[in-house]
Structure formats: structure tokens, C-alpha cells
Amino acid sequence: MSTLEAVMTTQEVANRYMELEKQGNWMAIQDELYSADAVSIEPEHAAAMGMQTLTNGIDSIKAKAKAWNEGIEEMHGGYCSDPVVGGNYFSVAMGMDCTMKGVGRMKMDEIAVFEVKGGKIVKEQFFF
């Protein structure tokens, strides 16, 4: 007799993402929902902002997020829409109003698309 571990559907991953996002628990999102070999893709113009356009592996994705967060001087607000699920993908509109160290206040709106395989996020891609 074998024991099978339940694998979350894309909708379940999206729902859990939203539960954790509403708590502001981004680290738990990465720890719980991302595959170890996940990939993060930023648009080409993000390089002009000093951002990597391609990041491989959850440890590198966490380091990228940490560096971004350390660059925030003050958070004025933010939002994340309910997810839209299609096949192995879900997307959310998200944004923030913040003051970045050495840059000043900025408002940023983007669409984030997540690919799910085997119950884990294997790719995130941002459009802004």
C-alpha cells in the first residue's frame, strides 16, 4: 500500500497565494508555494532600474525580493487583485505606492503571471 501526497490544483495554489498575500506574508508564499527550481522573469526595461531580468531558483528569487524590500524607504500603499485562473496559470494585477531609497516616491502597477506544475509555482513573470 502506498501513500500519495495530494497535489494542489492551480486554483488551490492561487487561493493560498491570496490568503498569504492578504496577510502580507510574502516569505511564506515563496517557502510554501514555489518550486525549488522556479524562474522569475522581469521585463527587459527593468534592467534600467537595476533589476535582474531573469532569476533562477528559489534562493535567488528570495535574494531578489530581499534586495527589493531593502530598497523601500517607506510604503504608502499597495494592492493585489483576485486571481484569474486558466489552465496551469493564474494572474493578478498588483501595485504599490512607495518611496524608494535614493529614487523618491513612485507608483508601480503590474500584471503578474504564475505558472503552476505539480502543485508548485515554477515560473513568475511580471509585466509593467
User: How many strands appear in the DSSP assignment?
Assistant: 7
Compute the CA-based radius of gyration: 15 Å
In the predicted model, the low-confidence regions spanning at least 5 consecutive residues are: none
Measured by DSSP, the beta-strand proportion falls in 35-45%
Total domain modules:
1
CATH topology: Nuclear Transport Factor 2, Chain: A
Write down the overall mean pLDDT: 94
Backbone structural class: alpha+beta
CATH architecture assignment: Roll
Largest sheet, strands/sense/barrel = 7 strands, mixed
CATH class: Alpha Beta
Number of helices: 3
Helix content bin:
25-40%
Distance between the termini: 50 Å
SSE string: HHEEHEEEEE
Shape: globular
Q: Layout of SSEs?
A:
Layout: H1 10-22, H2 26-33, E1 34-41, E2 54-56, H3 58-70, E3 72-80, E4 84-86, E5 89-100, E6 104-117, E7 120-127
Helix pairs in contact: 1-2
Q: What would the keywords be for this entry?
A:
single chain; 128 residues; 7-stranded mixed β-sheet; 7 strands; Nuclear Transport Factor 2, Chain: A; 3 helices
